[in-house]
Amino acid sequence: MRSIVIAGVRYRPRMATLSTHILDTASGRPARGVAVSLEKDGKVIARGVTDPDGRVAQLAASLTPGLYRLVFELGANNFFRRVALDVEIGPDTKYHVPLLVTPFGVTTYRGS
Question: Rounded to two decimals, what is the model's pTM?
Answer without folding.
Answer: 0.85
